[in-house]
Amino acid sequence: MSYISIILLAIALSIDACVVSFSYGLIFTEKRLKNAMLLAGCTGFFQGIMPAVGYFLTGFVKSYIEPFAGWIVFFIFTYLGIKFILEAFENKKEKQFCIDIKCLLLVGIATSIDAFSAGISLSLFGNKILKPALLIALITFINSSLGFWLGGKLKHLPTKALEITSGILLIILGLKALV
């Protein structure tokens, strides 16, 4: 696989992380830089690690995990989306939404399931994994940061509508994983 193909693969893999970060960027008002870096760092880290894991566990993945990858992503994103929507209806003072370690891990894993499969493909193509994994991690970090920033630029819209929209985006992303 050529470097151009790997860069295009990295961009495609980073889209889920960008959309999730966009959703988070819509609702976070405090500690924006910290939260953006946490999300981008977590999604970038998992996007870089998962291809390596898929690369080295190619045989195991194909027979056991790969058939359920879409469902795993669906359940994680649907859980997060429903959580965002429910939180939109809670009475709260400037409460921070789901940026704790549990949610970061869920987002990191959910956005990197495809990267796991990409590692299998890289293995089958006979590529080495270090450079592609680093490129995927870096591009995901950048796109996730951009998504968070862009989401923050739409703050003038009503908060409840933004939270519900964020939840719906996550659920749609989960449904997309089933297709």
Query: Strand percentage, roughly?
Result: under 5%
- Count of individual beta strands: 0
Largest sheet: none
Number of domains: 1
Report the C-alpha radius of gyration, rounded. 16 Å
Give, in order, the helices and strands: HHHHHHH
Residue stretches low in confidence (pLDDT < 50, at least 5 long) are: none
- Helix and strand composition category: mainly alpha
Number of helices: 7
Helix content: over 70%
Return the average pLDDT rounded to an integer.
83
What is the approximate shape? globular
Measured distance between first and last alpha carbons = 25 Å
Explained architecture:
By secondary structure, this protein is mainly alpha-helical. The chain contains seven helices and no strands. The protein has one domain. Helix 2 runs antiparallel to helix 6. It is globular. It starts with a helix and ends with a helix. The mean pLDDT is 83.
Helix-strand blueprint:
Layout: H1 3-27, H2 32-56, H3 58-65, H4 69-88, H5 101-125, H6 130-152, H7 159-178
